[in-house]
Amino acid sequence: MHGKASKELQKEVIDKGLCTLCGGCTGTCPYLVVYDGRIVRLHRCDMSEGQCYHYCPRTYMDMDAISRHIFGAPYGEGEIGSVREVFLARSTDQVIHQKAQDGGIVTTLLSVALAEGMIDGAVETKLDEEKNPHGFIARNREELLECAGVSYEPSPVIQAINRLPNETTEKLGFVGLPCHVACLSKMKLSPPTNRANIEHLEPVIGLFCGWTLSHSFHRFLQEHFDLAKAIKFDIPHHPEHSFDVYTPSGKESVDLDEISPYINKACGYCFDMTAEFADISVGSGRAMFKGWNTVILRTKVGAEILDIAKGRNAIEIQPIPDESLANLKRASLDKKKRALKNIISMTGGVDDLLYLGISQHLKEMLLE
Amino acid sequence: MAHIEIDAPGTTQLLLGNEAIARGALEAGIGFATAYPGTPSSEIMGTLAPIAKKMGIYAEWSINEMVAFEAASAASLSNIRALSSMKANGVNVIADFLVNLQMTGIRKGLVLVVCDDPGGMTSSNEQDTRPIAKWLNIPMLEPSTAQECKDMTKRAFELSEELGMVCMVRSVTYLSHTRGNVRFGRLPENKKVAHFDDFYNIDDPRQSRYTCGMQFHPYKQSEELLKRFAKAPEKCENSPFNSYRGPEIPELLIISSGICWTYAIEAVSILGLQDRVGILKLGTTWPLPEGLVARYLNKSDKVLCIEEIEPFVERSVMELAASLPPDQPRPTFYGKRSGHVRAWGEQNLNLAIQSIASVMDIPYTSRQSQDLEYRRAAQAVAQTLPARPLTFCPGCPHRASFWAIKIALQLDGRNGFVTGDIGCTAMGMISPGSFQVRTYYAMGGGVGVAGGFGHLGQFGFQQPVIAVCGDSTFFHASIPGLINGVWNQSNFTLAILDNSATAMTGFQPHPGTGITATGDPGKKVSIEALCRSLGIHVEICDPFDLNTTIATLLTMMRDEGPAQVVILRRECELVRERKEKRNPFRVYVNPERCIGESCGCNRLCTRVFSCPGLVWDRDAGKAVIDEAVCVGCGLCADVCPRGAIVKEAL
After folding, report:
1. Of A37, A46, A54, B314, which has the fewest Cβ atoms less than 10 A away?
2. B599-626 residue pLDDT tens
3. Which CATH number does the domain housing residue B604 bear?
4. pLDDT, tens only, B383-425
5. Percent of chain B with pLDDT over 70
């Protein structure tokens, strides 16, 4: 075992600027809380083994072990993780379309799963009045719709899982960013004690993510927009170069260059763009397929839900063009290479990759 | 409590040293007594106040020592004998007034009783007040027994009037808090008329005797003071409180005073040195009975001074030796300076034995170290004594306040800190207050220091500062610091932990309670009204409402504005319990929910929160409520992360 807990979490993750604010370490104990965009240690915990440290996606991730547990095979060397199918999809539900970021696939799949009784609800990110993101358990279609759309700020959504009562028998779907999915995958590999049964959490739907914006961005938003009126945030794909805030009276934009200083530094060390340990990963259709989602189907659980959704004509599907797939893979590979470079520059050597437990061969391949 | 007021001359009563001091004041016929609570002095007023009306005395708990002593002086200037009592720190508070009062002298007997605290068991330091007497030319008596506590207090009033100046009586913790036999004297006839004689007389326009700095030439009054004080040595010379016990020509002369004299006598007896060692007891430690001391200095080659805290008598005797006639042989001095007497902390019998044995160069092994069976028995007894770490009482609102302060400071995240103050809130500097108090000096010091920190912004200082004081401490000395901070726009938050009691010293009333020392209704002073009159932001929170308290503190810390006040108000649990005589909640632990040491709790309640009402059942691996200790405040139920602690309203 690692023999480490919150003190080491502070030293090895938070103080090094690696924390993604996923909420994996909070909600389950009285020692760690999320406050004002930070993980705060309130009291001294003297555990020698802490689940906070253990499940943090920025402490050691044995990628092979996790991959074996989820996919039955060691971690591969493909750019976008373990893949059954990649395609483009969008919802046929106009209500969802109005609210959704791109093709509305996430809300639609969960909505179908809920209607079919496959799940009792889903752990999602919801924005409060001030548009601060937080974990939320949506238990009906209306609540699922309330969670549609993207926040761009880190959401400690895992905290909502940690807060579930131990004895709950609810089956809940999950939607999160790659760091959230990574945290959840560690929990699934070695289930936590004194918490709700982690096996009840499926399907896991991952969202593509390049980076999030740090909490100080929220103050920027507050200063520039009337957040109470904001309906949706968007960063449209190239050639657009803006951050858009949609309100009932229209769209307001700021130049993307104004946003870039707020990019979370921790995201520079992230190896995963496509939420590789999810059952289904979902991203945008990019500029070429506006209003569509790019979908990566990874597991049997994911396939079951997609089949039902297709069977109910809740979604429509088209193949992804080779060029788009190649772009996706290139972007994902770029993120891996960038993360590796940043990690090595932090540790000062290729032998210490911080949390990243990848094979020697993959490492050499990426460093070429 | 002893009945110190009974008119039974010649009878013997068992009294605390402090009760004996109060009795001495009664026998001296005082009409006026004032004090500010402070261990180990509090029982003096605590004994006088309840009988004050019956005895025709005005008794007052004042808001601080300075006004207490000033008020007592007024009685003296109006021909009424007056007593003012305080702990050592209080003498610092009155120092300025005391210096100036010495310039004018007094009229009727005025006695300042100070109770020093060697070892600082209930104090922030172990200050010795005797050097203050020497510094200001104040006669000082130092009792060794309860009987002397009474007799010396009475004598101090006479001495005060004979010399026309305030007189000091110095007790120490061990003497003040130990019972001894006291033979009562007569209570005087109760006829007192107060009148201030030195009022303006139209036919004799002149400066009052009771204004210091005569014609703005203070040195003239210094000369008068020295003349008055010059009569003091002869009064001490023949004092019955000084005595000698031992052989005519001792090999070793011990000079001792106060409680240490009793240790010295017993030590000499245990060592069987009665025929070789003599003990000179000094009851008048300032000024020294110089003739008496000089006579005994002439009789021995070796002199050992045994006393507590400062080597006060030791130095004074050495000064005296320096002025002896050149043909008189100089003895060798042993004591704190030579390292033969421990220079810090309380003295005790064992230490006295060691000091004497080392000077006499005789081997001494204590029974503890030579008798194995005795040692085993002693250790067995020691093990049965439960450890009693300093802590907040069960249900104490301060535990909640410091819990909220700690969380607010952690959440704020700018390395903010607490400047602390004297009283129960001082516990904030140790574990029960999560070590939150980071500076701790003197009454009112918290807010004063905070005022300074709050002005360091221009040097890059960005840490939020929370000054903490109790309600009694607020009235005592925090108000000027607050006003200064408001006026000078210093950036800090003053948290007044208002438990509506002077709890640390035994629930003496203060202006916030609206009750006076004699139990009569006074005018209740509103802390919030007083603070709001400064035009500043004042919030009032119940510290048991942890979330609101934390949110309020966070908002106040973020506010860049000038000084603000948050009153964390909840009645002291001990006061509440006495009034209501029942617990508000039944509190118990649901063992099925308690996860104990496991990850997710790690014994938050018994390891971090640490209320004495919660105990850790090691065998079961669960927390349990100690029903004998728990007062049912229910705060732990709000703190438990698992909902395992249940509170049910009663």
Report:
1. A46
2. 999 999 999 999 999 999 999 999 999 9
3. 3.30.70.20
4. 998 888 889 999 999 999 999 999 999 999 999 999 999 999 9
5. 100
B544 and B589 assigned to the same domain: no
Residues B247 and B138 in one domain: no
Question: Which among B413, B601, B602 has CB closest to A46?
Answer: B602
Instruction: Return the pLDDT at B1.
Output: 60
Q: Are residues B361 and B401 in the same domain?
A: no
Comparing C-alpha atoms, which of A282, A86, A92 is closest to residue A173?
A282
* Same domain? B586 vs B570: no
Residues of chain B with confidence (pLDDT) below 70: 1
Does residue B139 sit within a domain?
yes
Find chain B residues with C-beta within 8 A of A194's C-beta: 595, 598-601
Q: Is B194 within a domain?
A: yes
CA closest to A54 among chain B residues: B599
Name the residue range of residue B351's domain: 240-368
Q: Do B95 and B73 share a structural domain?
A: yes
- Give domain status of residue B392, yes or no: no
Those residues of chain A whose CB sits closer than 8 Å to some CB in chain B are 5, 28-31, 33, 35-36, 38, 40-47, 49-52, 193-195
Q: Please name the member of B434, B600, B604 whose beta carbon is closest to the beta carbon of A28.
A: B600
Of A36, A41, A193, the CB nearest to B599: A193
CB B277 within 8 A of CB B360: yes
| pLDDT score at B279 | 98
pLDDT tens digits along B344-372: 999 999 999 999 999 999 998 877 778 88
Residue of A nearest to B407 (CA): A42
Q: What is the least distance, in Å, from the CA of A15 to any CA of chain B?
A: 13
| Domains in chain B, number | 4
Domain assignment of residue B231, yes or no:
no
CA distance B61 to chain A (A): 40
Q: Which of B579, B608, B640 is the last residue of a domain?
A: B579
Residue B538 belongs to a domain with what CATH number?
3.40.50.970
Q: Which of A35, A187, A215 to mutate to test the interface with B (most CBs of B within 10 A)?
A: A35
Q: Write the ipTM.
A: 0.92
Residues of A in contact with B551 (CB under 8 A): none
Hey, are the CB atoms on B600 and A41 less than 8 Å from each other? no
CB B613 within 8 A of CB B626: yes
- The verdict on a CB contact (< 8 Å) between A33 and B411 is yes
Same domain, B459 and B538: yes
Q: State whether B27 and B90 are in the same domain.
A: yes
